Recover the amino acids of this structure.
């Protein structure tokens, strides 16, 4: 399941809605991730997003950026579980799809063993049945957003204990998971799902190709097949006035660790941002990949 980047509720209420909410049908199942702390604003954003038929609406209570803190949403909401409960109730009243919450195990000097179960119990009381837990604290003072994704120690065990404590809830884990084997191990211990972010972005072939086979589905495309399957999606994006690099910059890591990967990245980095760049740049990058691999 794909989650969007976080979009703030005020942006949806007052900003360019199609630009913020449009997506391709091939991206289903997809969840809209909202940021905010005003129940009325979140309800309004959820109502507007209904026309886009997302499969889930997620409230972000985990983002630690300064901008998010100043707006009183993201990870700072770990300190206000009752407000989060009010927010999700308001959101649920505007949609028939699941409203879920993504959170941290705590912030700053909070004791995760104490705060996390109370936070989950509070939002479950408001009707939340699905929680995604980033298994790190967020340090709102002293660490940058990047450092908050890497420095606070992981506590996967605490998330596992939350699943045992709340067996009726869907509990998914996020944070520091870099391989399919690691994901499968966490699922085998009883968790309902694994969210992978940076590893899937930087090395998508290693993390995503083969995921279906791990659960009995034989689907395991070659990375070149993935590129070719992207062509209709890219062509549609270009026909709608988009730029090639808006897509290909997210494909740079597709051949990570493979012969020719540097040539693939170089061609896309140098040529995809040029005015009028089209599918011929993809062809050139593949040719460079194959030439380098054969050398």
């Amino acid at each position: 399941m794909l989650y969007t980047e976080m979009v703030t509720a005020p942006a949806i209420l007052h900003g360019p809605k199609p630009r913020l909410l449009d997506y391709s049908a091939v991206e289903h199942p997809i969840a809209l991730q909202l940021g905010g702390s005003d129940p009325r604003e979140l309800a309004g954003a959820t109502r507007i997003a209904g026309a886009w038929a997302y499969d889930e609406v997620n409230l972000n209570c985990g983002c630690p950026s300064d901008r998010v803190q100043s707006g009183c949403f993201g990870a700072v909401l770990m300190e206000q579980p009752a407000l989060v409960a009010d927010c999700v109730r308001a959101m649920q009243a505007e949609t028939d799809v699941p409203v879920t919450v993504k959170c941290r195990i705590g912030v700053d000097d909070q004791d995760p063993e104490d705060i996390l179960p109370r936070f989950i119990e509070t939002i479950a009381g408001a009707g939340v049945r699905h929680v995604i837990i980033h298994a790190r604290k967020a340090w709102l003072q002293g660490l940058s957003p990047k450092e908050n994704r890497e420095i606070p120690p992981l506590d996967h065990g605490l998330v596992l204990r939350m699943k045992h404590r709340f067996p009726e809830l869907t509990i998914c884990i996020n944070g520091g998971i870099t391989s399919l084997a690691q994901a499968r191990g966490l699922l085998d211990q009883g968790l309902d799902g694994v969210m992978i972010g940076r590893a899937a972005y930087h090395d998508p072939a290693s993390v995503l190709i083969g995921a279906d086979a791990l659960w009995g589905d034989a689907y395991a495309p070659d990375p070149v097949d993935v590129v070719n399957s992207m062509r209709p999606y890219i062509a549609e994006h270009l026909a709608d006035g988009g730029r090639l690099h808006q897509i290909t910059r997210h494909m740079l890591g597709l051949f990570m660790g493979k012969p020719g990967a540097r040539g693939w990245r170089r061609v896309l980095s140098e040529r995809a941002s040029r005015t009028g760049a089209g599918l011929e740049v993809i062809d050139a990058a593949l040719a460079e990949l194959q030439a380098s691999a054969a050398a």
The chain has a mean pLDDT of 93. The first strand starts at residue 2 and ends at 8. Residues 183 and 194 are 6 Å apart (CA to CA). The chain has two domains: 2-176, 223-294.
